[in-house]
Give the backbone structure.
Amino acid sequence: MPELLSFLITAILILYILRLLARIFLPMLFQKVVNKAQQQQQQNYGQQYNQNTNQQTSQNAGPAKIKVDYVPPQSKKGSIPDSEGDFVDYEEIK
């Protein structure tokens, strides 16, 4: 019986100490992770910004060209236009 009691007390103390340590160190760990991710995002943004400005300065100042990848099919004569829709009559019940 005393062995079981000493085991329980030891286990409770260890869990309590781990909980206290987690309260102290986990916020610091999360803050480091967030700061690192933020720095990486800033570096990526800076690289993209530099690439975009380099591309814009290297292009001619002439008119912009537009490239269309998709042209929707022509609508049929018998089809209902989008402005028309299904309308269901209803009667308000009091």
Summary: The first helix runs from residue 2 to 58. The mean pLDDT is 82. The radius of gyration is 33 Å.
